[in-house]
Automatic annotation (TrEMBL), chain A:
This is Cell division ATP-binding protein FtsE. The gene is ftsE. SUPFAM superfamilies: P-loop containing nucleoside triphosphate hydrolases (SSF52540). GO terms for biological process: cell division. It comes from Sulfoacidibacillus thermotolerans. It holds the Pfam family ABC_tran. One of its GO terms (cellular component) is plasma membrane.
Length: 228, 294
């Protein structure tokens, strides 16, 4: 479950990214976040995994009170929130399996757990046969699937995806969306910021539109709604 | 949260790999620490030896006062008494002309014919022992003004002079070494910073998947510490071998000798390792403090 209560975010350079956002995203839902560039979409997403701190207001993500979180608690919180980016953020010198295992190694999981979990998520994203390949040997869509596998390997309650299909062609974008839907079917909350009108219109979900730092629209089974 | 042994192993491996990732910076940092500690070590060895010399050479506690030939022999006991009464003088020993000549011949040995035929050119002399070597110049001055004393000589005062020179050398060295230590720390922290910079993507991902700061710091800490230790090992080996060689050379000239190698060098090496460790740990901590706020 994600909840924001009257959240404001003003950056140090004086730019106000969010002005009074309140929203409730129940556990297990799938939400698109849409809106023009620079409208506050990225800030909205970044607040959820404590990349940014709100200037004012309350944020709860999966039982963590984000704005009250102590520095030492941030890593613990992040183990419950998977994050996926437009540019995948994979380590080029590591293989597919190693990239996924990395997320477990740095939280000091046992070798057995790592092996088991890596195998499970590789099966889930359908890349078992490419486990020993390097990221540069994969297509963009495959790389994004590795990134999603890495985000899932900790069994997070929430997955936050910031334009996960931004660099992908329509076929691969569609495959990524289908994968995220499958993850959602297992009870994981998905928050996906996107510019991809086709996906949003074809695969109806709740749509939250952010404009000028405010939620301008919040509809169940909404449309993309912009002509860009 | 207790750190697992496997994690320590991982930090060790990663930290070691980091050393080679920016080989030249690592080389520069290790060299700086090595030069610093070489100078520190050399001055330690020097001062330990000079100190022991000044403690051991009994000579420094005594000096000679030569009696004028005009003073008749029967006056000598009175003179001795007068010298003994000077404040700070512990003992006064009389060496007669004849005795002095005998000693001189002993020293010259086979070359003693050199002074045969000269008669006895030596004066009567008193050897004065004092309580405090630092008072020698002052007491000697007093003795010089005693009637009947022609000349005083305190060649042994080389040691106090050496000591005062050493103090200057030491004070200069301390400032110099302090500067070098700061430079060593600076270079190590810069090297670690560059590693952090080249690996910022990895650090970013580690942060995003929930690695603790302590975990992320591990390899960088190892990297800095290793640089400090390597920087200490090099001068330790050089000084150890160098000292052994010099001591061997010095031993060929009998009156001089340096302190035993293990006695001096075991301590010096320990000091160098401790300093290297300190520089390395400090250098890496300083660089990480600012950089890991992702």
């Amino acid at each position: 479950m994600i909840e924001m209560q009257d959240v404001w975010k003003e950056y140090e350079n004086g730019v106000t990214a969010l002005s009074g956002v309140s929203v409730r995203i129940p556990q297990g839902s799938f939400v698109y976040v849409v809106g023009p560039s620079g409208a506050g979409k990225s800030t909205f997403i970044k607040l959820m995994y404590r990349q940014e701190r709100p200037t004012k207001g309350h944020i709860f993500v999966g039982g963590f009170n984000i704005e009250r979180l102590r520095e030492s608690q941030i890593p613990i919180m992040r183990r419950h929130v998977g994050v996926v980016f437009q540019d995948y953020k994979l380590l080029q010198q590591l293989t597919v399996a190693e990239n996924i295992a990395f997320a477990l190694e740095v939280i000091e999981a046992s070798r057995r757990t790592i092996q088991k979990r890596v195998q499970e998520v590789l099966e889930l994203v359908g890349l078992e046969d490419k486990r020993n390949m390097l990221p540069r040997e994969l297509s963009g869509g495959e790389q994004q699937r590795v990134a999603i596998a890495r985000a899932l390997v900790n069994k997070p309650k929430v997955v936050v995806a910031d334009e996960p299909t931004g660099n992908l062609d329509p076929d691969n974008s569609w495959a990524i969306l289908k994968l995220l839907e499958r993850v959602n079917d297992r009870g994981t909350t998905i928050v996906m910021a996107t510019h991809n009108r086709e996906l949003v219109n074809a695969c109806k979900k709740r749509v939250i539109a952010i404009e000028n730092g405010r939620i301008s629209r919040d509809e169940e089974r909404g449309d993309y709604g912009y002509e860009d | 949260m207790a750190m697992k042994i496997r994690t320590i192993g991982r930090h060790g491996r990663e930290g070691f790999k980091n050393l080679f990732r920016n080989g030249w910076m690592t080389f520069a940092a290790i060299s700086a620490v090595a030069v610093t500690l070489l100078i520190l070590g050399a001055s330690l060895v020097l001062s330990v030896n000079i100190q022991s010399m000044s403690l051991n050479i009994e000579n420094q506690l005594q000096f000679n006062a030569y009696v004028s030939d005009r003073v008749p022999n029967k006056e000598l006991p009175k003179l001795a008494h007068e010298l003994r009464s000077i404040h700070g003088v512990r003992t006064v020993t009389f060496i007669s002309k004849a005795e002095g000549l005998k000693r001189m011949k002993q020293i010259l040995q086979s070359n003693s014919d050199l002074i045969n035929g000269l008669g006895n050119p030596l004066p009567n002399e008193f050897v004065l022992q004092v309580n405090n070597p630092h008072q020698i110049p002052q007491i000697a001055n007093e003795v010089k003004h005693v009637r009947g004393i022609e000349k005083v000589q305190y060649g042994a005062s080389v040691v106090p002079k050496l000591l005062s020179v050493m103090t200057i050398v030491r004070d200069t060295a301390i400032i110099f070494i302090a500067g070098l230590i700061v430079m060593g720390m600076f270079l190590i922290s810069n090297t670690v910073k560059i590693t952090i910079f080249t690996r910022r993507r990895e650090i970013e991902i580690m942060k995003l998947v929930g690695a603790t700061d302590g975990f992320i710091r591990g390899p960088f800490f190892v990297e800095g510490t290793l640089m400090g230790i390597f920087g200490a090992l090099i001068p330790s080996v050089l000084l150890y071998e160098g000292y052994r060689w010099i001591r061997h050379q010095v031993a060929l000239f009998p009156p001089f000798s340096l302190l035993p190698t293990p006695y001096v060098m075991d301590r010096v090496v320990l000091v160098l390792l401790a300093c290297g460790l300190f520089i390395g740990v400090w250098g890496s901590l300083v660089s990480m403090r600012k950089f890991l706020r992702v």
